[in-house]
Automatic annotation (TrEMBL):
Name recorded for this polypeptide: 2-oxoacid:ferredoxin oxidoreductase subunit beta
Residues in Thiamine pyrophosphate enzyme TPP-binding domain copies: 56-202
Entries under Pfam families matching the protein: TPP_enzyme_C (PF02775)
CDD domains: TPP_OGFOR
InterPro entries on file: 2-oxoacid:Fd_oxidoreductase, THDP-binding, TPP_enzyme_TPP-bd
Keywords carried by this UniProt record: Oxidoreductase
Amino acid sequence: MADVTQLIHDYLRHNKKFPHVFCAGCGHGIVLGSLIRSVHALGLPKDDVVLVAGIGCSGRMAVYVDFNTVHTTHGRALTFATGIKMANPKLKVICVMGDGDAMSIGGNHLIHAARRNIGVTALILNNQIYGMTGGQCSSATPQGDISMTTPFGSLEKAFDIVDMCKAAGASYVARGTSFHAIQLDRLISSAIMHPGFSVVEVFSPCPTQYGRKNKFRNAVDMYKWLKANTVKVETLKEPDQKPADGRIPIGVFRDVEEPGLEERYFELQRKLMGQNR
C-alpha cells in the first residue's frame, strides 16, 4: 500500500481548507480515501480522471481532489458526467452523489444513465438522509425512521438502490460500506475499469443528522451496526447458508461486460462516415 502522506500530497489540493467539512464520524472521508487509493492502485494519470459531483455532503469531494473536477447542480451530476464521457470517451468519469442527490432529485437521470449503459462510474454515498440541507427524509430513509420531515417516522418504503440499478440496466452494480474499507477499495477499482455504467452504493454513516435522530449514541455505534448487520453476498450463495434475515448484502451483484453508450455511438458514427465516402 502506498504511503498515506504521499497519497495526500499527490491527490489532494492543498490550497483548499483542511481539515475537511465532513462531521466527526461521517463515512464520507473514508470513501474519499478509498477513491484516492483506487485511482492510485490503477495507475491512472490524474489528467485522465474526471470527478463530477452534485450538491450535498458528498459534493465536497470534487473540491478536495486534484483531478479534473466539476461541481454541478443538485440532482444533475449524471447529466454533466454523460456529456463529458460522450465528448471524450478516453476519460475515466466518476460521478459522486448522495442518496438524495442520486435517488430523489436526480432519480430520473440515474435510471436513464443505467438504461443507456453510459461508461460512467456512479458512487452513491447512502447516508439515508439529506445530511447537508437540514436532515430531511430522503428516498433511501428506511420506513419508520426519524428525520426532520418525518418526526414520527417515515411512512414510505426506501428504494433498494442495487435492485433499481440492476433493473434499469446498469452492467456493474455493487454495494459496500465505509466500515469495510478494504473491500470498498476493490469495488471502486473494479467499477472504474468496467466498461459501461457502473454503480457502487456505499452505506456511509451520518452521526449528526441521521444517527442522533435514530437513537445511535455515537458514530462508533453506527459502525458497529454496519458490522453486525451486513453480510457478503457470496456468503449467502454458499450451501446451507441461512437467509440474510434482514442483514444488508454487500459485494458485487452484477458484472456483465457490455459496450457503453459512447462505444455504440462512435461505432455508428464510423459506419455512417464509411457509407458516405
